[in-house]
Write a structure and sequence with these properties.
- This protein has three helices and six strands.
- By secondary structure, it is of the alpha+beta class.
- The protein has a single domain, classed as Nuclear Transport Factor 2, Chain: A (Roll), CATH 3.10.450.
- Strands 2-1-6-5-4-3 form a six-stranded mixed beta sheet.
Length: 118
């Protein structure tokens, strides 16, 4: 699978909250850095993160730019999520950096910025 296909599949998996599909594209020692928030290391840690945060649901996402080569990929756009328990919707800009190793994502660095409410 080419890196662009991996990223496209990851975007779809995040939109559908498909944890197992997300994890299938990660190395066992994946490191997911959520800048300014937390860093998750390893597939099991990420699986636990998704199972302990089931109230967050993605409503929509867009891709504004995607730049990918054989070692890295960068995607940015907008995302709208809803906290089902609280009924609060979050509108954000995002930028994800991916580092690849043997057709898997080894490191993912995510920047999320809340959109200003007018």
């Amino acid at each position: 699978m080419k890196n662009q296909e991996i990223i496209q599949s990851l975007i779809t998996a995040f939109e559908k909250s498909d944890t197992e599909l997300i994890l299938s594209h990660f190395t066992d020692d994946i490191k997911w850095v959520m800048v300014g928030d937390r860093t998750l290391a390893g597939k099991e840690t990420i699986r636990k993160f998704f199972t302990t945060n089931p109230d967050m649901e993605m409503i929509s996402s867009t891709v504004d730019h995607m730049v990918i080569d054989d070692k890295v990929g960068v995607v940015n756009g907008e995302v709208q999520c809803k906290n089902k328990a609280e009924g609060i919707t979050h509108d954000m800009y995002y930028c994800d950096f991916y580092e690849f190793e043997k057709d898997k994502v080894k490191t993912m660095t995510s920047y999320m910025i809340n959109k200003k409410k007018d």
